[in-house]
Amino acid sequence: MFESLSIGKVAMLLSMSSDSDEELIRNKAEAQGYKVFKGFVGAMDSSKIFASIETAAKREKFIKNIYREEHSLYHAVLEAYEGVCRGQIGLGNVLRTAGLVFTIVKGSRLPGDVKDGSWIAVVLYGNMGAPVKGYEHEVIGLGIYPV
């Protein structure tokens, strides 16, 4: 089923996977040389989403505490965030809330393509809507940036 996985496909599949599929995707991705992480964040404030992902990326050693790597992660998160917000950046200030799974994947864009250098992919997947239960809808965003 998952013969060859690109960095973006790994990030998207992992973000939407059930517990039983997650192990299969994670094992295949790691066998192909990718480093992967899956976390969760819920917020009405975009800065909390960005901070949660950056904290996880540093804690799990996806990036070092140097500007170039932090900048790469920021742009990958920003691209993914623009996707879930459909180009309308903003949550709490327009009374929207988000409950999201986030995945971080680091490695080459294609399995084994080390000549191209290291890249980082971030996916945000979950629900967004008015801060009233039942008024939300599914969203997904993907950002990929060189590290």
UniProtKB/TrEMBL annotation:
InterPro entries to which the protein is assigned, alphabetical: Regulatory_HutP (IPR015111), Regulatory_HutP_sf (IPR036482)
Gene3D superfamilies, A to Z: Hut operon regulatory protein HutP (3.40.1510.10)
Superkingdom per UniProt: Bacteria
Pfam families for the chain: HutP
Keyword annotations: Activator, RNA-binding, Transcription, Transcription regulation
Subunit comment: Homohexamer.
The family this protein is said to belong to: Belongs to the HutP family.
Function, in words: Antiterminator that binds to cis-acting regulatory sequences on the mRNA in the presence of histidine, thereby suppressing transcription termination and activating the hut operon for histidine utilization.
Protein name (Swiss-Prot/TrEMBL): Hut operon positive regulatory protein
Originating organism: Clostridium neuense
